[in-house]
Amino acid sequence: MLVIEDLHVKVGDREVLKGLNLEIKSGETFILFGPNGSGKTSLLMTLMGFSGYKVVKGKIIFKGKDITNLPVYERARMGIGMSFQRPPTIHGLKTRDLVQMCAKYAQNKEIDVLNLAKKVNFLDFLDRDINSGFSGGEIKRSELLQLMAQQPDLLLFDEPESGVDLENMALIGKIVKNLLRGNGESPRPDVPMKELKKIRQVSGLIITHTGYILDYVNADRGQVLMNGQLCCEGRPRDILEHISKFGYKECVRCLNK
Amino acid sequence: MSEQIKIDRFKLEGMEVEQDLQQFVSKYKEELEMAGIVVNELERSGTYLHLNQNPLQCKSHQSGLEILDIKDALSKYDGLPDYYWKAVDKNKDEYTKLAASKVHGGYFIRVSKNVKIKDPVQSCLFIKDENVGQSVHNIVVVEEGAEVHIITGCATSHKVKSALHLGISEFFLKKGAKLTFTMVHNWGEQVEVRPRTVGILEQDAVFQSNYILLKPVKIVQSFPVVYLNGSGAVARFNSILVATPGSYINSGNKIVLNAPNTRGEIISRAITTGGEIIAPGVIEANNVPAKGHLECKGLILNDGVIHAIPELKGTRSGVELSHEAAVGKIAQEEIEYLMARGLDEDEATSTIVRGFMNVDIMGLPLKLKQAIDKIIAETEKDMF
Ligand SMILES: Nc1ncnc2c1ncn2[C@@H]1O[C@H](COP(=O)(O)OP(=O)(O)OP(=O)(O)O)[C@@H](O)[C@H]1O
Ligand SMILES: [Mg+2]
Using one digit for the tens of pLDDT, what is the confidence trace for A66-111? Predict the structure, then answer.
């Protein structure tokens, strides 16, 4: 699904990613850890193609195609979707209308916005301007709602659990899980797991500090991003346990090996 | 650009027209509808139509709602001594002087005490011939506890290039009265426009003005002022301005908070695609407690000038006045956020611009909102 080769990225004059190699296979979910400022968000922004994140070396391959220089919308239409950590407010653009627009390039264009919104407990926000005065937890649900309409094949989540209360955590966990299962809005008990994977293979890249999301998704692999470099590959739960015990200093040693 | 007008170019006399109402309405249906006029008067409580230099229709469908041509009102009410030139200063400038010397018409609208008019009153000041100078004088009196929404569409026929519109408007809101005044301007590329508007609000009166200018115009120079003289009065100005190449728009508002517990708000959205917009906003507070907020946002697409001039003046300790103004281009971050949802750059840009011009806060009736959405869609085509 996604292959990253020797990726070097500059923000302004500063190199924030320094030679990343990573592969995420179809149907796989990858967890990204790393201290504040290590470049995690920058990686997602680069994958999505945001200006300001300049690839100075290396390439990004998605579904077998080199997308390193493609504009943002083409990547989105090819099937990359991202949940933003701090999305901008757009005045005069109703959440309802944006969700509807998200479905325009999805496999299933006929979406029922009300029904989707109900699932993320977001009905009351549909008539509000997108992200205008949304709380941290509301932003998360709004981002998920847009992704449910968009139905991407590669999902990029930037800290889906930060700022979310316990009750909503369960809700968000469930939705993220469903999105990653490739059946987007609703579980499909009628179709066996194996069959489902054949219908649509969805991959995920999730940034987390707390690891709460691991209670909900079936994550295969994880790695730590330190100072713009990846290290310490392992099972996400093991990595999390390690970080909570020893902090990131072990990772530094690992990097310097 | 000079804001002076060469007045001699325009014919201020002799452009009266004998026209059959039905003929007029069917001939200029499109222009009228674009100016927010519902031709069959469905869901309208009254209509005033003025063509070139004489009134054409003057009709109220509701008791407690009086609609007269200003000349008739002046003779019926002995020159309207309490109202005529009582809000606007006759000697303010050469245009008020000119308007005072030559009145072609205009409406006198009065809503009786405690009468709440549900459907809007519509009016249209229309110019159909080249080089017409039109001078109208409007007076609105909303008596104690009464409510009304007046929609005024000013327009020229498609074929008119050059014309002059002088418009004096005086609003009087008595205790607890409520007036929503919506103005849609659809002028031609060489039309010069000089409205002069003043409102006076008594205790607990509520005034809301909506001003929509999306079409090309040569010069608009307008600066409505409202005085909140009674405690608890509230005033709010919303405006949406678009300056196409060659347009020069100097459009601002002023709110004067003269009594305790008054509130004022000025919200303007300006877009230039090559023209020039001067957007002054003034809130002055001379009593406490008084609150005012001014918000001016400008988008420069392509070229053009936007000059936002927010101004706050407090003369007593304890007034709360604030403003925010921003002029620039569309934030790249917003464009890319939408692109990440699959919209290409043009779609993203126009979605943001449409949001910017959103008129939802104006609370307009459906038909008018549809007419405006149509103009916005048309305007948008020429933007990028
Ligand atoms: N637009 C920008 N302008 C300037 N510096 C930036 C910009 N974006 C990122 N950086 C810098 O790049 C580094 C990596 O930032 P990034 O947001 O990717 O970190 P992160 O790993 O997501 O951190 P956190 O866990 O706090 O979210 C930081 O030092 C940050 O200040
Ligand atoms: Mg981050």
Answer: 999 999 999 999 999 999 988 999 999 999 999 999 998 887 778 8
B346 touches chain A (CB under 8 A): no
The ranges assigned to domains in chain A are 2-255
Q: What is the pTM of this model?
A: 0.86
Chosen CATH of A2-255 out of 3.40.50.300, 3.40.960.10, 3.40.640.10, 3.90.660.20 = 3.40.50.300
Contact list, A81 vs chain B (CB under 8 Å): 340
Q: How far apart are CA A73 and CA A101, in angstroms?
A: 13
- What number of C-beta contacts closer than 8 Å exist between A and B? 69
Cα of A46 to ligand 2 centre, how many Å?
13
* pLDDT tens-digit map of B134-147: 999 999 999 999 99
What is the distance in A from the centroid of ligand 2 to the CA of A183? 27
Alpha-carbon torsion (B357, B360, B361, B366), positive or negative: positive
DSSP designation for B218 = S
Contacts of residue A233, defined as CB under 8 A and 6 or more positions apart, other chains included, come to A221, A222, A223
CB atoms inside a 10 Å sphere around CB B135: 23
Distance, CA of A129 to CA of A119 (rounded, Å) = 20
